[in-house]
Model the fold of this input.
Amino acid sequence: QIDPSNTTVIRGLGLTYIFLHQYDKALETYQKLLVQLEKSDLLSYNEMHRIGYAFWMKGFKEKANYYFEKQIKLSTQGIDLQRINNPFFHYDLAGVYAFLGEKENAYEQLNLFMNTIKWKHSWIIILIQNDPLFDRLRSEPRFQAILNEIISEHQAEHDRVSKWLKNQKIM
Done:
């Protein structure tokens, strides 16, 4: 049982269904999210493109484009206003642009994401490696170079922390 008012859980569940290619369930879950967002007058900065993707995969291209455009607008506003320090605005834009075939915009936003995000956590690597929005770019050398840079930075930080822990005799 999931509390239908818990938007954090609903968001995670919707993304999980997308990654599992269960688009019916993703769309159903995201529609519940939209209801909760409307009820609570909340704004979701990071799900509109996922909702668009779910609609696209179910054949509702016009509806999908509406949500892709909404994500572009929200992310661009967030970046322009700089009121919310969220490097994922760049990631989300990159995903939308990649999916829509706007490769140069996608790479520009991915590079901005790389320069904005402080820590390259393993979950970020897993996300980028598997995010279906980047399927069109995944095999391209530029995309692989960005991915390899993230992996390299993550490994360097991991090694630095491991060394510190050993020096402190914690590990």
